């Protein structure tokens, strides 16, 4: 059984009908060529760093073009804030427990139903270019050329239709080149296309392209208001290892691989040094050194030389305060002593600058693709989508990374430009399981009953569906793991959020350092989620209502009910 579909006004017929081009009238008996789909996705791109969403940090004129001519979703979320799981949700239109890819350690079952397979059957030519991250080889694509695993920023290795190939250059440029080459030279122009253009950037370790390295060098980014969050009443937030000050590695993340080996850091230091010595070509190293050598010197002047050379001349109050030092003596900081405010500010600036340089390259490459579509008359017959596999912390709560159901990582940017469609904001609660049914409906392909997402096409066409979802379900599974974010699931409606961090078991045995606790937030009065009001007097009815909503979603999605 399939769902009832409203026929989409698409393709050439749609364009002709809307504009009456050249005085010709669309003939109803001539089948319209279905709309093309260009689905651009980045890895870890925060909505805070897209100017269509937030103007504080960066101007992204090209990504903003998609928003200006289309729809900006202001309440867009993921189902499980991690790369592989998000990709599996998008391909299948199903939550993680239903598609089987619950965390980054498993292998995607490529024999299951996905939207590219269904589009392919309906006559689309499908291509997957860039980051895939699902371990098994892609299925459902006429052409695929994927980065291996996480992919490398410089001189990355790809697997092109089964063959390994290393390409010299910068990943974001290369991935875009491959997509443009496929559109121009490899794609059968008689068929509609569905192209997945999925970048590795701006994933850790935020390595900029040589031409962007000097950008933002003079900009100082103040620490976010919540940077010094003490996590009171939130034990899972307190137990994470993704803090800019404590966990961001000086050599690996912040590229302080000094030739003298004086800067020491944590277990990632070796990787940080290898990234430089083994991955970059001599020419790339020259660009790298020109930029990072002065940064390294600046760091040594501020945090290493000063304490040895000048300490004897300092009064006691000028010397580094021992009690604030202790907090920064983490492995990622090489056990060094420093003023915690000063070191945090320095690390945060380096992080932000590199991250934003990487975004600049993405934005430029998005522009290249939009220009190509425009020049080739494809912009009026292509749905263009821009999104990320999840959101990311730009220092809020002190963090980088994602995983939590808190707003910065639960949300994800989502812009869609449908020719002839709505322009402006859409505020309904949408989730990444909705993309598959959207693409299928747009293509006129019946949406299978077992798909759990809802088509966004009515919203893109400016319609107001009477019955839209009132709440979202979320479930994160990767613990024990890097960054030590505990497993949790929860529900969010337009105002409140209920989360349950629950004990993990491995082979039936409870793992140590488990956390079992509930959190409840009023997002209207506490948008930064600093006050867990679960269990407080007066919240009993609200809690029961959210637990009921959660239960209903678990039943609707056939999701595991834990500790219910
Ligand atoms: C890598 C990163 C982590 C990151 C995961 C998942 N470490 O393991 O910081 O959380 O990927 O990211 S790194 O040392 O390899 O950079 S995901 O977006 O791919 O799921
Ligand atoms: Ca990611």
The H-level CATH homologous superfamily of the largest domain, spelled out, is Alkaline Phosphatase, subunit A
Shape: globular
Average pLDDT confidence is 92
Secondary-structure content class: alpha/beta
Structure commentary:
- This protein has 564 residues and is α/β, with parallel strands linked by helices.
- It contains 15 helices and 18 strands.
- The chain has helices at 11-19, 61-68, 83-92, 96-99, 115-121, 171-186, 235-238, 269-279, 282-310, 322-326, 340-375, 407-410, 435-442, 457-460, 540-556, and strands at residues 36-42, 71-73, 76-77, 125-130, 143-147, 157-160, 163-166, 193-198, 382-388, 414-417, 424-426, 430-431, 472-476, 488-492, 496-501, 505-506, 509-510, 517-522.
- The two termini are 32 Å apart.
């Amino acid at each position: 059984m399939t769902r009832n579909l409203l026929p989409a006004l698409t393709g050439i017929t749609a364009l002709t009908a809307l504009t009456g081009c050249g005085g010709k009238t669309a003939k109803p008996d001539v089948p319209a060529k279905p709309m093309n789909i260009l689905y651009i996705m980045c890895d870890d791109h925060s909505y805070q760093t897209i100017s269509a969403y937030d103007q504080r940090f960066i101007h992204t004129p090209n990504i903003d073009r998609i928003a200006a001519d289309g729809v900006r979703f202001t309440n867009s979320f993921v189902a499980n804030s991690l790369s592989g799981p998000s990709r599996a949700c998008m391909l299948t239109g199903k939550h993680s427990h239903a598609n089987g890819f619950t965390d980054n350690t498993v292998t995607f079952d490529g024999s299951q139903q996905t939207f590219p397979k269904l589009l392919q059957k309906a006559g689309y030519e499908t291509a997957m270019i860039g980051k895939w991250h699902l371990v098994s080889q892609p299925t459902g694509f006429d052409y695929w050329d994927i980065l291996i695993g996480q992919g490398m920023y410089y001189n990355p290795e790809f697997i092109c239709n089964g063959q390994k190939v290393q390409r010299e250059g910068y990943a974001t440029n290369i991935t875009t080149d491959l997509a443009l080459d496929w559109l121009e030279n490899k794609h059968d122009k008689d068929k509609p296309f569905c192209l997945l253009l999925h970048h590795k950037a701006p994933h850790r370790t935020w390595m900029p392209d040589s031409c962007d390295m000097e950008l933002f060098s003079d900009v100082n980014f103040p620490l976010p208001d919540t940077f010094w969050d003490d996590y009171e009443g939130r034990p899972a937030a307190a137990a994470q290892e993704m803090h800019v000050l404590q966990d961001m590695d000086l050599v690996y993340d912040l590229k302080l691989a000094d030739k003298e080996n004086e800067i020491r850091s944590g277990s990632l230091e070796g990787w940080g040094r290898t990234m430089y010595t083994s991955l970059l070509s001599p020419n790339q190293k020259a660009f790298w050194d020109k930029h990072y050598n002065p940064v390294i010197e600046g760091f040594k002047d501020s945090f290493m030389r000063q304490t040895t050379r000048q300490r004897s001349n300092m009064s006691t109050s000028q010397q580094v305060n021992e009690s604030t030092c202790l907090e920064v003596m983490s492995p990622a900081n090489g056990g060094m002593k420093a003023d915690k405010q000063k070191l945090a500010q320095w690390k945060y600036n380096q992080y932000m600058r590199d991250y934003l340089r990487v975004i600049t390259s993405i934005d430029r490459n998005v522009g290249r693709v939009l220009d190509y579509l425009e020049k080739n008359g494809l912009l009026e017959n292509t749905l263009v989508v821009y999104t990320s596999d999840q959101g990311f912390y730009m220092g809020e709560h002190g963090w980088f990374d994602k995983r939590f159901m808190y707003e910065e990582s639960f949300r994800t940017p989502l812009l869609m430009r449908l020719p002839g469609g709505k322009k402006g904001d859409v505020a309904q609660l949408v989730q990444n399981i909705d993309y598959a049914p959207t693409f299928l409906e747009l293509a006129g392909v019946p949406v299978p009953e077992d798909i759990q997402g809802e088509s966004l096409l009515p919203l893109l066409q400016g319609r107001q569906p009477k019955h839209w979802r009132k709440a979202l379900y979320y479930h994160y599974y990767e613990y024990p793991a890097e960054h030590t974010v505990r497993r949790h699931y929860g529900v969010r409606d337009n105002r409140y959020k209920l989360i349950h961090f629950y004990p993990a078991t491995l082979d039936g045995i409870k793992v140590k350092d488990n956390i079992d606790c509930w959190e409840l937030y009023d997002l209207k009065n506490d948008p930064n989620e600093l006050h867990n009001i679960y269990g407080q007097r007066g919240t009993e009815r609200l809690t029961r209502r959210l637990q009921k909503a959660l239960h209903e979603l678990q039943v609707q999605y056939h999701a595991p009910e834990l500790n219910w």
